[in-house]
Fold:
Amino acid sequence: TIKAKGHKFDNWEDVKAATCTEGGTKERKCSACGAAETKATDALGHDFENPTIVKEPTISTTGLKEGKCKRCGETTSEVIPCSAKDETTGTVFEANEGVFAAGTELKVEEIKTDNPTYASAKNILKDICGEFKLYNITAVLNGAEAAPNGEVKARFNIPDGYGKDIALYLIKADGTSEKVNCEISEDGKTLSAKLSALGDYAICKLSESEKAGNNTAEDG
Structure:
């Protein structure tokens, strides 16, 4: 019995190029037998030149911008997703419509080292990291705290000197922590995660033991 050699595919090539408003199609062929694979590509979206914000978005409502697209030359408008930015910490949030009721505001507070909440988090995270930034994230509607009805995407600024060996943890009310899946930007400046709940989140500079644990998991 002779094992199949398997395909040797060339690079993906455009069969139908994507445009600002329509997706395209790419194809690659096997150099050995000529078999082809195809995949759909997303629309590029307009690349506005000096866009004008007609309506600012909030975390509960979409916004709108208008301008001339540098790519296709069309003067058009585009919806801005529901989003909000905390100016003090630079944290940016995005959510689908309906996740927050109209009028909801997101608030982010950095919990300082002299706060008892920080001391509690430090004890919870003692086996994970020795250095971390702790943020309390809340949603407020009509003066009362509100819970999201779905996921919230958050993008945090990574503290100076933390590098890329970092992780995001939710500090839970029962005195435990939960690691949150996150992605670090290529330039190492921001960390993005999908949050299913609001509360206290710690950006942790990992200890050597935690780094080793992560590497072992990746190797496995």
Observations:
- The longest strand covers residues 129-141.
- Helices lie at 116-124, 208-219.
- The chain has a mean pLDDT of 90.
- The chain has two helices and 17 strands.
